[in-house]
Amino acid sequence: MKAIFNHCNINVTNLDRSLAFYKEALGLEEIRRKETEHFTLVYLGDGVTPFSLELTCLNDHPQPYELGENESHICFTVEDYDAAHALHEKMGCICFENTAMGLYFIHDPDDYWFEIIPEKR
């Protein structure tokens, strides 16, 4: 058996705020959406790979999610590391940086962490 990556899901508390963040911070675009009376699913893509980030917004869950120690993360490779860092610094979303390793993390409005690394290391 061989499994192929398809998508990763995170739950968000404010869909509009999250969509705006992912577009500005990472350039992700909505590729499909499913709405029911209980939840909305929005899939975001990078326009390059088939992998998607699924945002789930539950209609009856406005409170923040318990993320534990927040050790899980998704990593993004960026072509222009310095430009990405400047944008994320301006947005105020850098939450951890390891200059010796040449990487940093940003966090979204629900405090999920995303690692940012340069295309060539």
Strand order of the largest sheet: 1-4-3-2
Shape, principal axes of CA atoms: globular
Q: In terms of per-residue confidence, which ranges show pLDDT below 50 for 5 or more consecutive residues? A: none
The CATH topology corresponds to 2,3-Dihydroxybiphenyl 1,2-Dioxygenase, domain 1
Q: What composes the largest sheet?
A: 4 strands, mixed
Radius of gyration: 15 Å
The count of DSSP E runs of length 2 or more, i.e. the number of strands, is 8
Mean pLDDT across the residues is 93
By CATH reckoning, the class would read Alpha Beta
Helix content: 10-25%
At CATH's second level, what is the architecture? Roll
Structural description of this entry:
This protein is an alpha/beta fold and 121 residues long. The chain has one domain (7-61, 71-118): 2,3-Dihydroxybiphenyl 1,2-Dioxygenase, domain 1 (Roll), CATH 3.10.180.10. It contains two helices and eight strands.
Structure keywords:
121 residues; alpha/beta; 2,3-Dihydroxybiphenyl 1,2-Dioxygenase, domain 1; four-stranded mixed sheet; 2 helices; 19% helix; globular
